[in-house]
Specification:
Helix content: 40-55%
Largest sheet: 3 strands, mixed
Number of domains: 2
Structural class: alpha+beta
Distance between the termini: 104 Å
Order of helices and strands: HEEHHEHEEEHEHEEEHEEEHHE
Strand order of the largest sheet: 2-1-3
Number of helices: 9
Radius of gyration: 32 Å
Length: 350
């Protein structure tokens, strides 16, 4: 028979060590499990956030009719042309927006361009275009380039890759227009905002409820035209305004004391500026000095001025580079249009 004392000592030692071992193993297991759970949550968290950010894709394609034929005055050849609306829009997109833009931005531009035509038709303004609804001159309507013009200018490869993308943007928005109170709107658009768009009445005098100043935050990050600077000598500055206003009193010396910005629009553009003895509209200054926009500041140097300009274009309606930024950030074309054209809806005509 074994030593009873040794057996007793062994039993006591086991009774003490086993719970300790169980505790250690259990603690390690709990730590490991907690670590796994914590890691899993961290891994899942971005997925949950991404899922929350997923937006419902709205399909506005409710009607499937043949696209209409429209009369377009081609100012280059001095003739009216009968064009399929969608074919015409491909030529407009190629002229008005880079094919390198995000597809959603191109789709927004396609809808804006289509709406512009329907607005012109609805307002009965054909007489200004020699019995055509619109013309091909961007200074009056929308720029348009025919398929043959684009092919000759850009080559086969561009037509295969870029023009096909433009066609896709037009096809995927077939018949879609922007309406306010169920009527086509005047879809003004421009290149680059200064961070905010402009109220239409502050630029063109006429007020439209859907052409209101809105934030356009992505231009700064995406547009190469967001900021520009015009360096002009005091002499040339004075000469420019002397040519524009024969009765202006302006001296090359101490221009700082002769120039003052008096008022700005909601979008930041210069409304009224005092130059010499004249109070001048910012839009007029833009025209006189060929500035990219009417949103500018003036830095006075010893014998010259630095005019720092923000944005490119009139600033009313949709910023094309702002639309590109929104598209790159994941917005759909109808969200872009809803943002820039206040209180509007999308309607499918055909």
């Amino acid at each position: 028979m074994k030593n009873p004392l040794a057996i007793l000592i062994t039993i006591v030692a086991c009774s003490i060590s086993i719970p300790i071992l169980i505790s250690i193993v259990s603690y390690d297991g709990i730590e490991a499990t907690a670590s796994v759970k914590e890691q899993t949550i961290e891994e899942i968290k971005p997925t949950l956030e991404s899922r929350d950010k997923v937006k419902e894709i709205i399909n506005y394609e409710t009607i499937n009719k043949k696209s209409p034929t429209i009369s377009v005055y081609n100012h280059n050849i001095g003739k009216n042309q009968q064009l399929d609306m969608e074919e015409y829009l491909c030529g407009v997109l190629a002229g008005e927006m880079s094919a390198e833009f995000n597809l959603e931005a191109l789709k927004a531009q396609a809808v804006a361009a289509r709406t512009f035509v329907m607005y012109k038709e609805g307002k009965g303004k054909q007489s200004k275009h020699k019995n055509a609804i619109v013309c091909t001159d961007f200074r009056h309507c929308q720029e348009y380039k025919s398929y043959d013009e684009l092919k000759k200018k850009n080559g086969e490869e561009w037509m295969k890759n870029s023009y096909s993308k433009i066609q896709q943007a037009v096809q995927e928005t077939k018949g879609h227009i922007i309406v306010y109170n169920d009527e086509p709107i005047l879809t003004l658009y421009f290149s680059t905002s200064s961070g905010k768009t402009e109220n239409s009445e502050e630029v063109f005098s006429a007020a439209y409820p859907y052409l209101k100043s809105v934030d356009s935050p992505y231009d700064k990050d995406y547009s190469p035209k967001y900021v520009s600077t015009l360096k002009i000598t005091n002499q040339d500055f004075v000469k420019a305004f002397n040519s524009a206003y024969s009765d202006i009193q302006l001296s090359e010396n101490d221009l700082n004391s002769q120039i003052e910005i008096l008022d700005r629009s909601d979008g930041g553009s210069v409304e009224i500026i005092k130059i010499g003895n004249k109070k001048i509209k910012g839009t007029d200054v833009r025209q006189i000095l060929s500035l990219n926009s009417a949103n500018f500041d003036i830095e006075f140097k010893e014998d010259y001025l630095d005019i720092v300009i923000k944005g490119y274009g009139h600033g009313v309606g949709m910023s094309q580079w702002g639309a590109e930024g929104m598209a790159e950030e994941g917005y759909q074309y109808y969200e872009i249009l809803s943002h820039y054209y206040t209180g509007t809806k999308i309607k499918d005509l055909y």
